[in-house]
Structure formats: structure tokens, C-alpha cells
Design brief:
The protein has a single domain, classed as Peptide methionine sulphoxide reductase MsrA (Peptide Methionine Sulfoxide Reductase, Chain A). The chain has 8 helices and 8 strands, in the order ααβαβαβαβββαββαα. It has helices at about 5-10, 15-20, 40-50, 70-75, 95-105, 135-150, 175-180, 185-200, and strands at about 35-40, 55-65, 85-90, 115, 120, 125-130, 160, 165-170. The chain has a 6-stranded mixed sheet, covered by helices on one side. Strands 4-5 form a two-stranded antiparallel sheet. α6 links the parallel β6 (about 125-130) and β7. α5 crosses α6. The radius of gyration is 16 Å and the shape is globular. The two termini are about 30 Å apart.
């Protein structure tokens, strides 16, 4: 089964549609709330969140390490302390931070250490990055709730840590799922997961993603 890093390395050696069509972040994000999560390959995580009503933009990037200006080569090789992450810009009157947490924990396995499916390494660890005490408390309380309910067979290993800096990833990673439908990783790993998400969270989807 293809891994996220294998697909990415192959794609960078040829001209891709994403290089020509990737959408820059809408600069009009004033007034929007922000949340940052890491839960495996950011192509999947980005695709989940961008489908939610109330989410206005999602940026793939890196967070959790101390190294400035990390590159994908460095992160995917495990040469930094960063994890692949996404920054979510959302309208808090349409979707709450609690709602984002619920989607985050339902769309990856928070009980595996430094691994999500075929993607292995600290760069794929599960993290909730908080920007204020309220986000920290909500994340910790929700993890406790999931543990007490026995939602997962094994112990949740998700880190809850402060966001120091979010570094946007290279342009070709942005909106990767939509722009690279024939990528082997997208076909074999991401698409089945996204389709399952669309089925399970149909009531939270933007109209254009309801089938």
C-alpha cells in the first residue's frame, strides 16, 4: 500500500495539475476562529475538514517542532520535530471547536503511536494544538469523555500541546486530495477514508459534498 511520503516524492518529479491549480488561502480570514490538528497524512485531514459546514479554509502544514521553515523532505524523513498538520479557519457561529474535535477523533486512530495506517514516523503522531486555555480544556475534557465511554479499545495517545508556530506546507500539498484524484495514495488510502467520512457525517457536510 502506498504511503503519503512515497506519493509525494513521486509527484514532485513531474508537473502536476496541483502546481497550476492550487488555490491560495483566501486572505479575508478576519473574524474567523482557528484550530490546528495533526492526525496522520495532511492530505486526508485537510479533505475532511474542508467538507464541513462552517469551515472556510484549511491549510496543510507543519507544527510541533522547533526547527524554523521546515520542508517536506525534512519532515517526512523525520529530521525535525514537526508533525504534518492542518490549520482550520472556521466560523464559530456555524461550527464549534467541540464539533471540530469530534470530527478529528472520529477520522483517525488516536491510539496508535507515531503511525496512521501505512504512514509511520513521529511526523504522523496525533496532536491537538491549542491556542488558548479554553481549547486546551475542551480537548482534555473530550479525551477524558472518550476514554470513560470506552470509545476506543486502546488508550488514547493524542498529545494536547500549545501551538508555537504553524508553518504552511509547499504549494503542491494544498488541496492535494481534490487536485490529484489519480494519485496511488489518494486512490488506495485517502478516498475510502473520505468516502466513509462523507457517509458518517452527512449532516455536517457542505451541500456540494452531499451525494
Amino acid at each position: 500500500m502506498a504511503s503519503c511520503s512515497e506519493s509525494s516524492n513521486a509527484d514532485r518529479n513531474r508537473t502536476t495539475d496541483s502546481e497550476a491549480q492550487a488555490q491560495p488561502l483566501d486572505q479575508d480570514t478576519a473574524g474567523l476562529a482557528k484550530a490546528v490538528f495533526a492526525g496522520g497524512c495532511f492530505w486526508c485531514t485537510e479533505a475532511y475538514f474542508e467538507r464541513l459546514k462552517g469551515v472556510e479554509a484549511v491549510v496543510s502544514g507543519y507544527a510541533g517542532g522547533k526547527e524554523p521553515n521546515p520542508s517536506y523532505d525534512e519532515v517526512s524523513a523525520g529530521r525535525t520535530g514537526h508533525a504534518e498538520a492542518v490549520q482550520v479557519y472556521y466560523d464559530s457561529t456555524k461550527i464549534t471547536y467541540q464539533g471540530l474535535l469530534e470530527v478529528f477523533f472520529a477520522t483517525h486512530d488516536p491510539t496508535t503511536l507515531n503511525r496512521q495506517g501505512p504512514d509511520v514516523g513521529k511526523q504522523y503522531r496525533s496532536i491537538v494544538f491549542y491556542s488558548n486555555p479554553q481549547q486546551k480544556k475542551q480537548a482534555e475534557d473530550y479525551i477524558k469523555e472518550l476514554e470513560e465511554a470506552g470509545t476506543f479499545k486502546n488508550k488514547i495517545l493524542t498529545y494536547v500541546q500549545p501551538l508555537r508556530k504553524f508553518w504552511p506546507a509547499e504549494d503542491y500539498h494544498q488541496d492535494y486530495y481534490r487536485l490529484n484524484p489519480d494519485d496511488p495514495y489518494v486512490r488506495s488510502v485517502a478516498r475510502p477514508k473520505v468516502q466513509k467520512f462523507e457517509s458518517n457525517f452527512r449532516d455536517k457536510l457542505k451541500p456540494e459534498y452531499i451525494k
